[in-house]
TrEMBL record:
This is Tektin. Its main location: cytoplasm. Residues 279-306, 370-397 form a coiled coil. It comes from Papilio xuthus. PANTHER family: TEKTIN (PTHR19960). The lineage of its organism: Eukaryota, Metazoa, Ecdysozoa, Arthropoda, Hexapoda. InterPro entries: Tektin-like (IPR048256), Tektins (IPR000435).
């Protein structure tokens, strides 16, 4: 059939109304699903934003609190270490004072050591008859032993004190270094705590969650600090015991040297008294010997005179006897005068022999007494020299006494008569 209007159809497939309706419904359903998904997305996004905001806020808050707690903890450990450091500094000071006092006493020991050496040298000047092994020499050797032993003990404690001071200085430097580290840590922690999201010095960092090298756990950190404080307290305890040992050693050395000095001076005075008594005895013997020598000398002179007096009577009786032998033969009678002259001759010769023997005995006695007199004089010289030697010990030992300690006060102490004197 012919048409008045030409109709052209597109070259696409035609859809039916039912398909068209289904397409519209499908688009409606898809739009409904998209709107629901959009709603769900917006709700979940809102919830996520709220949750992340709250989480971020509370994480920041909790970390600030943790930083505050950490700062407080570090401050607490720093204060403990500061207190320990001050205690260590005080201990070093008092230990150094004790060590200096011990070194001063050790240096002072050179004085009694020199005094004892001079005492020995002075006593060696005695002559051999007076070189006796007496109690004074034993006490001097004992005093020398006490001084040397005290010197050795004080030297050992001084060396121990030097080592302890070195250990305390090491732990002091360790504490000081740890305190400086904590100061730097606190400064850093304060800076970290003061940071917020509005700061201009925040930025992205490369691998911020990395753990630095040589990091330690919190337990190791606390254990290290406690070990340092414990070690410092242990060293201070040992230092206190060492100071007590130093004080005890010093006082014991002083007491022993003082007591032994008193013993030495007591025996020294006793020795001087014994030598004076022996010297006085020798002087008395010398005076008696001089008197007896004079008497014996006079007796010898008398004996010599008596012997001389017997010369002429002997000559007389011998001459008479000789002259009577010249009588004539018939007159040579052994009469009473002859017998009397013979008896007189025998008596005169007996008397002369007795006088000569007595003279020899007197001379022997005189020479023996004179030799003994010379020995007494020599021994008296030895006694005077020994007395002067031992008296010189008093002057030698004066440096061991105080400047205000006089000999009178020492004698009062030796005799224990202080309570018997009238107070000033």
């Amino acid at each position: 059939m012919d048409a008045s209007i030409p109709v052209f159809e597109k070259p696409h497939p035609k859809v039916t109304v039912l398909d068209w309706t289904r397409n519209i419904q499908r688009l409606q359903n898809e739009a409904r699903v998209r709107r629901f998904e959009s709603y769900e997305l917006r709700q979940r996004a809102n919830q996520l934003r709220n949750e992340t905001s709250v989480t971020t806020y509370w994480d920041n808050y909790m970390n600030n609190e943790l930083l505050r707690d950490r700062i407080f903890e570090v401050q607490s450990w720093r204060e403990k270490q500061r207190f320990t450091r001050e205690c260590v500094r005080d201990e070093i000071r008092v230990l150094r004072e004790e060590k200096n006092s011990t070194e001063l006493l050790l240096e002072y020991l050179q004085v009694p050591l020199m005094v004892v050496s001079q005492c020995f040298s002075n006593r060696d000047q005695r002559v051999p008859p007076e070189l006796t092994t007496d109690q004074l020499g034993e006490e001097l050797r004992k005093e020398l032993h006490i001084i040397e032993n005290s010197k050795r003990v004080l030297t050992d404690v001084c060396h121990m004190g030097w080592e302890k001071i070195k250990e305390l200085q090491n732990v002091f430097c360790r504490l000081d270094r740890e305190i400086q580290n904590k100061d730097e840590t606190l400064q850093l922690e304060y800076n970290v705590k003061d940071l917020n999201r509005e700061c201009s010095n925040i930025s992205y960092q490369l691998d911020p969650t990395r753990i630095p090298a040589e990091s330690m756990s919190e337990e190791s950190y606390v254990h290290c600090i406690e070990n340092t404080i414990k070690f410092a307290n242990q060293l201070m305890t040992e230092s206190k015991e060492l100071r007590e040992t130093m004080f005890k050693s010093r006082e014991q050395a002083k007491n022993q040297m003082y007591a032994q000095s008193q013993e030495v001076e007591m025996f020294m005075r006793r020795r001087v008294y014994d030598i004076q008594r022996a010297r006085n005895e020798m002087e008395w013997q010398k005076s008696k010997l001089e008197t007896n020598l004079q008497k014996v000398d006079r007796e010898i002179e008398c004996l010599r005179a008596a012997v001389a007096d017997k010369i002429n009577p002997t000559k007389l009786v011998e001459t008479r006897l000789e002259m009577r032998t010249r009588r004539p033969v018939l007159e040579r009678v052994q009469d009473k005068p002859m017998r009397g002259l013979i008896e007189e001759y025998e008596r005169v010769h007996t008397s002369s022999n007795l006088l000569e023997k007595k003279l020899e005995e007197a001379l022997t006695t005189y020479h023996g007494m004179y030799n003994h007199y010379q020995r007494v004089i020599k021994d008296l010289e030895y006694k005077n020299q020994a007395l002067e030697t031992d008296r010189r010990l008093i002057e030698i030992r004066k440096p061991l006494h105080g400047p205000n300690e006089t000999e009178f006060k020492r004698n009062i102490g030796y005799c224990h008569v202080a309570n018997e004197l009238v107070p000033e």
